[in-house]
């Protein structure tokens, strides 16, 4: 994140990429520390809200899930026109993430499929039938597996090399699982559902066969929807966003239990999305109150608010690490 409060980042500093998307059909780039909007992609006349955003590992591309399609934008450009548009989903796209090398893009959709795209050709490379609307997808840190969650209440681990689902976790059938996150070392898997319950699984290495996850705990994080759950890069924090307008920060004890560390209060409506800084010291959140906020994890205080969207801000992306 920016170097210090007294030394804001230069106006065109590309070391920190912060982007938000909204139901107002706009994508906004922000100077993280000053709060100034440095660029707006206004999709005038184009149908569909911006659902999810992802920044490529090299900070060159922005993938925006817009209703049933994905627009790929060049971050260093001033043009509002995408350099590619990926179309094959027949339902709302709910997840988008880049593979570590930036050559592949993974998307999940309410059409019940997970798709892998080759960004070098802008063509569909592979398709997985989940048989239920997909709510979230993340790429395993080993880059060889995907983890998804869906409306049927399932968390699935997909093996990319064998094109199969190698493990299915279903705490409660037909209770939608809203969001999924994984520790950077692949040892911990966490998901949150529509009832505000968080489920935690740890990696269990068996003597034979592939490693599998086993349940270790569950707890109620909120009394309403969990819209997003996210582990910090250092796995010190778990952030849970909710329909109750709050973001809660949890820390894990030595016996896999989670303790409520802070409640981030300031948003006036649902909080839809969040993103940690690379050093886990800051959190960005996006809310239906039209704003995004920057939070200091040490104090739990909101240190910057990003104003400019005219409707709900429902997604955000942050990349302040090495490009």
TrEMBL record:
UniProt keyword Mitochondrion present = no
Signal as UniProt keyword:
no
Protein name (Swiss-Prot/TrEMBL): WD40 repeat-like protein
Species the sequence originates in? Mycena chlorophos
Residue stretches of each WD repeat: 86-127, 170-203, 219-252, 264-305
Could you tell me which Pfam families the record lists for this protein?
Answer: WD40
User: Per its UniProt entry, which superkingdom is the organism in?
Assistant: Eukaryota
Family of the protein in this entry: Belongs to the WD repeat LST8 family.
Please provide the record's keywords in A-Z order. Answer: Repeat, WD repeat
Annotated SMART domains: WD40
């Amino acid at each position: 994140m920016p170097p210090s409060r007294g030394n804001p980042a230069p106006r065109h500093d590309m070391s920190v990429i912060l982007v938000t998307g909204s139901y107002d059909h706009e994508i906004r780039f922000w100077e993280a520390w000053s709060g100034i909007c440095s660029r707006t992609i206004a999709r005038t006349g184009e149908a569909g809200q911006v659902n999810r955003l992802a920044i490529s590992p090299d900070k060159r591309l922005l993938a925006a899930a817009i209703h049933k399609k994905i627009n790929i934008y060049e971050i260093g450009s001033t043009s509002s026109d995408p350099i590619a548009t990926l179309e094959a989903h027949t339902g709302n796209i709910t997840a988008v993430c880049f593979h570590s090398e930036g050559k592949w893009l993974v998307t999940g959709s309410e059409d019940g499929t997970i798709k892998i795209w080759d960004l070098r050709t802008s063509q569909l490379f592979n398709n997985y039938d989940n048989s239920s609307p997909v709510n979230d997808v993340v790429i395993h840190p080993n880059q060889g597996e995907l983890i998804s969650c869906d409306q049927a209440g399932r968390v699935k681990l997909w093996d990319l090399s064998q094109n199969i689902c190698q493990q299915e976790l279903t705490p409660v059938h037909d209770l939608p699982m809203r969001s999924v996150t994984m520790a950077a070392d692949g040892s911990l898997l966490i998901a949150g559902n529509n009832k505000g319950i968080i489920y935690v699984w740890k990696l269990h290495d068996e003597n034979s066969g592939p490693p599998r996850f086993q349940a270790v705990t569950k707890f109620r994080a909120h009394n309403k929807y969990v819209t997003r759950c996210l582990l910090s890069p250092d796995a010190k924090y778990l952030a849970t966003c909710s329909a109750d307008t709050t973001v809660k920060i949890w820390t894990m004890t030595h016996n896999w239990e989670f303790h409520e560390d802070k409640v981030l209060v300031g948003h006036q409506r649902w909080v839809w999305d969040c993103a940690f800084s690379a050093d886990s010291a800051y959190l960005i959140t996006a809310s239906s109150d039209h704003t995004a906020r920057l939070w200091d994890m040490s104090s739990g205080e909101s240190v910057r608010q990003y104003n400019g969207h005219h409707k709900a801000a429902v997604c955000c992306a942050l990349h302040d690490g090495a490009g």
